[in-house]
Structure formats: C-alpha cells, structure tokens
Amino acid sequence: MSTRPANPHPAGIWTRHRSATTPALGVDLTLAVLLHAAVVAALFGVALLHPHGKTWGDQNPVAGSIQASMVSAIPLPPKPVVEDKVLASDSPSPAPITAHEKTIPPPTPRDIPILAKPTKPLKPTVDHPPTPTPPKHAELKPPPPTKAATGETSGMRLAQSTAQLKNGTASITVQDRNFGARFAYYVDQVNRRVSSEWLTQTADPRASLGKRATILFDIDRDGVPSNIRVETRSGSPTLDISALRAVQRVDHFGPLPQGDHITVEFSFDYVQQ
Amino acid sequence: MEKMLNLARRMRTRPDLRWNLLPLAMALLISPVLRAQDWFKTETSTGAGTIRMAAANFKPQSPDPQSAALKRTFDAVLYADLANAGLFDMVSKSLLPTSTPGSPSEIQLPQWSGAPTSAAMVAFGSLGTQGDHLIVNGFLFDAKNTQFPQILAKQYNEQASDDQARQIAHRFADEIILRLGGGVSGIAETKIYYVHLAGGAKEIWEMDYDGANQHPVTHLGTTSISPRVSPDNSRLAFSSLDRSGFQIKMYSLLLGRMVTFPSSGGTNLSPAWSPNGHDLAFSSSRSGDPEIWIADASGGAARRITNRKGPDVSPVFNPRTGAQLAWASGGTNGIPQIFIMDSDGSNITRMTDGGYATSPSWSPNGQFLTFAWNRKYGPGAPGGQDIYIMEVATRKWIQLTHDNGRCDYPSWSPDGRHIVYASSPNGRMDGMKIWSMLADGTQQRPLSATGSDMPNWSWK
Q1: Cβ contacts (< 8 Å) between A130 and chain B: which residues?
Q2: Which of A164, B201, B325, B371 is such that its CA lies 20 to 30 A from the CA of A145?
Q3: What architecture (CATH level 2) is domain A161-269?
Q4: B1 lies within 8 A of chain A by CB
Q5: Residue A71 scores a pLDDT above 80
Q6: Mean pLDDT over residues B267-272, rounded?
Q7: Chain A residues whose beta carbon lies within 8 Å of the beta carbon of residue B46
C-alpha cells in the first residue's frame, strides 16, 4: 500500500526532536522549579496575610447582597404587545354596506314574438286505386259465466285444447278465457308445440300411471315462455320433471295475437299405451 | 320442428369401432329382433299431428285475362308453399267445395269443416287487378272455431306481374306459417345461392327457395365456388380462381357489384359467416398446410385457428351461439372427418367415427349437424355418399338420402325444417342437380336443372 507510511513506528521523529532540545534542558528545568516555588510561597503568603474575621453569608447588615445582572446582548424573543383597545373603542366602525341583488323581472308574454307556422307545401294528390274495405273483426263477447244460472253447482271447467298422445294426454287452459275463445288457434298451436316436446318415456311408467301433473307458465307478448313452475304435483317426480322439461324445451311460441301476456295451465295425463 | 324432434328420437346409436367384433355385429344386425333394438323409436309426437289445411282458389275480382294468369300463378304458389312447409296436411284441390269465397261474408265454414274437406284451417281470399296494380286480399280462418273463426286478414298491393304474384303468395304463406308453425318463421321468402356450370365457367347463381326465378349473380368468367350469403343478406362471400389461385371474394348484393377483399398467398376456400355477420371463417394454405382462419368481414385481422396435420376445410359456425365451429379435417391419413371446436380453436371433438365425411352444415337451433358421408369408403367398398344428420350432443346419426346417387353439400334452411343439397345420379359433376327435402329425409324434390352445385340457403 502506497498510503501507508514506510516506517510504522514514528519514534525516529521524536528522537530527532529530543536531540535538538537537549542542550537547554537544565536551565529550563531550574527556572520552572523556581517559578513553582514562588507561586506556592505567594499563595501561602496571601493566605496568611488575609483577614479571617468575616465570611460571606453571616449576620452582617451592611454587606451580603449578590447582584446578578442579565446580559442584555442575548436576543430574547420580544413580548407580544396586547392590544386591548378594541372593546373599549368609543366610536364603533360603520357596518359594511351590502348591495341588494336586483332580480330581473320575468319577461312578459308579449316580449317573445310568436313565429307564424310555416305552411306545408301541399302534396300533389296521387290517384291511388281505391282500397277495398278492410274486413270487420268479429266482436268480442264476454265469456259465458262459469257458474250455473240457477242452483249451486259450479260450471264444468273444460280444457280449451286437448292433444291425445300415444301414452298421455296433454290439455291446455288459458286463464284468460276470453283470449282462449277468441284465439283458439294460438292455444291450439301452443298445445301442439308443447306436447310434441313431451318425451313420455322419461316418466316412470309404473309410478306415473294415471297421474296428472299440472304446469303453469306465462307467455309474454313475443311468445317467450317464462315463470315455468309445477302447479300441482302428480305424486310421480319423473312425470313432474318430464312435464316441466316439455315446456322448458320451447324457445318461443310466436308473438301473441293480442295482449301483453297470458298465463297458461298445462296438464299432462299419463295413461298406459 | 316436430319432424326434427322425431328425428332426434329415431337417431341410431353410434356404431362400435371394435373391428374384431365386426362379423358378430353384422350377424346381430341381420337378426330382425335385435335390429329393432338398435333403433330408438318413440312416437310421442305422432299424436300431435299436422294441421289439415285447405288452400282455396282465390276469387277473381276482375275478369281480364291478365289477372286470370296471375291468379293461376298465385294459387299454385300458395298451395306449394303451404305443402312445402312440412307443417300441414294439405287438402287436395279436388276435395275442395265448389264455391270460391272471396271475403269473410261469403264463406260457409260448415262446407269446409265437414267431410270430405274436413279442414281445420282455410286460406282463401280474392285477387284482382286495378290498372297495373295487383290487389290481393288474403284470409285465414279457423274452421273449427265457429264463434271467432278469423285468424289472419292481409291485403297486398303490388305491381301486376307474374313475379309479384309469386312474391305475394310467398309472403302470405309465411304469415300463415308464422301463426301456425309454433313460432318459427316460414322460408317462402328465402333464397338459395348456388354454383352454376355453364360453358367452361362456374358462376354464382340465385334462385327462390322453390327453384323459381333462377338467375346469375356474378359474371366473372372464371371458376367461382362455395357461395355463402351473409346473415343480413347484404353480401355474398365465395371462393374464386384468379391468377394467384383460389381467393376469397366478396360480392355486395345491395350494390350489385364486387367489393374488395384482401387476397393472400395459398389456396383460400369455403368461407363461412358468423351468425352476427362480423367474422368470416375460411380455409387458407397461406402458412403451408390448409388450416382454418377467421378474419373480420372486411378481411382484416386474419388469425389462424387450427394447427393440425392434414387439410382443414369447410368451416361452419354454430348459428345459435356463434361460439363453435364444425369443419372437415383430413387428419393423418388424409380421409376427412367432421370435427367441432370452440371458435378460439380449443375443445376439438371428433364427430364422425370413420368413412369419408365432408361439407358440414349446422342446424339453426344448434342441435344437429348435417354432412355428406360415405360410410364405407375405400377401394372396392360398396358405399355411396349420402346426406346424414347427427345430433351434436349425443353423436347419434340418421341417414336421410338413399339410392339417390352421390349427394353432397347439404345446407340447412333458416326454419330448421328443410335441407337443400346437391345430388348427381351418375356420380359425375356435370350431372349435379340441386334438391330440397324436409329434415327427416321426406319430400325430396329437385329444384334446378343439371349443372348446379354447392347450394347455400340464406339466413332469412
């Protein structure tokens, strides 16, 4: 390492210095001893000559106060000046003047001119071939009452459309009986569609024999079935599931001819083939 | 729909591939008792039968000979549309009552609902010309509902021409089918696009769903194949041969001319639209091997979906979800099979278990695939190529065409009740005709003359 001194022991330096001062050593030593002796003698002399009568802090009324004086050169923080004249003011200052906002008066109806309507150019009349009179719709009659006019027996509630399948009967009733009478073809095609999707072999034949499952669902105006649920359980779970699946397989039945939605009750009767 | 569900239940189980058991399996199939077990047959829907429909001859309102010719066209087209729908049991015209009611006040419903007509529904009305306008009043009555028989009343007013009489009949038939078809729109107004071979060139042609009004769309003078119309009927994508090989081309049906579509290297074949019309899947060999690519509708952002050995062609989207693709993949031995995958290339599933299967088409409700299949493919094998449908979830299949020559390129109709396909009785390409059938294989009938191929049914 170049930074390390060549000789690790600096004794040589001290040796040379000492050798340079060696000749004056005896004179200096003598002077120092004399000086020390003089100082010691002076101290003893003073101690002996000093009067011992009074010590500080005794019962002397004249002497005995200690003065301590602050050094004014140290910059201390200035004391805050308390302005205590505010509440004592004789003449209160005047309140600020606030200008009231002026409201713009609403326009009177006459301020806004009413434009005259642009007159439409008259269309040239074209000779259309006379259209034939549209066919008249059959008028809607209220459905016949479901109760007998006399007596207490209620009317029979017949299904509106029934399809005989190989081992089952599918029958449909629309709860809006007016719809069912007016649009029987729609009820019919819903029945045909659902019963074609009913896979009767997925129902257990022994457990389902003679049982009836009733499914309730809604058809919205686009014809999409929704809210499909089992209304009456048959007692045979496989028949319930097969009936539910039959409705669930249908994407849509075609748009409703009238109304927003209809509620359909669909009964599946399982019979021996 | 009913027919399709019948099909689903009659699907055959997938045959076992254990070839060492083949002789035993053949012996079992010959036995009639065990063969009956091989088929699922349930007849749940047979009871919910078809609707017996009477389509009356419309009443002429004006005596001129022009309207008589229009009325003949109208009556024939309306009857054919209703018969083709596959929903109705049509009353033969010879069994109709002699009266021709023209308005609701003139019809005697007991005449129609009673024997021998025994109709549940009656379509009738009047037709006349006023000046050069053709005015048709159409009615649909429920013959069984005596209190409220009217279902539908429609009035049409168009230019008096044979084509317009035909179009009015199509529209009226679609209205009837929408009301009675269980919520599925009719197809009488749809179109079929196909390849027409004339001279040495193959051009894209268009026709009505019943084969009428056949006319060319493109005039490129080259070989154009596999037309696919976009879901909104605005554009037609196809593959056409130019100096750089087969390229995807785009024709605007609204503008009536070709629009640009970027070309790339390699052979680009069989475009297919996604159901939202935003994407186009096709097969391209720009990276060497023919793979499935998906680009947006203007050809940008093309990305490769498959990475398989062997050619991958004929993609088709699942029209219900748009999230799956079916396609034909050659695999290692080069014999194509039908596969399905998600539209990002994952979840690859093989559908067919052997033979030679091509040209998949997906049913509109996403439940079935139809494709051309030669199940006994190989040198000296007895098989022929026929149209099959397969339920995607169960992979059960059923054969639709039998002994009708070589059938190929099936395409579903938008109502899911029909399939259009090409068939050649002698197996040669120049003998190809376009046929239509119900999706259960019945009512097969030719639509076009020979030299027509690769039909594609429009989406609406």
Answers
A1: 130
A2: A164
A3: 2-Layer Sandwich (3.30)
A4: yes
A5: no
A6: 94
A7: 165-166
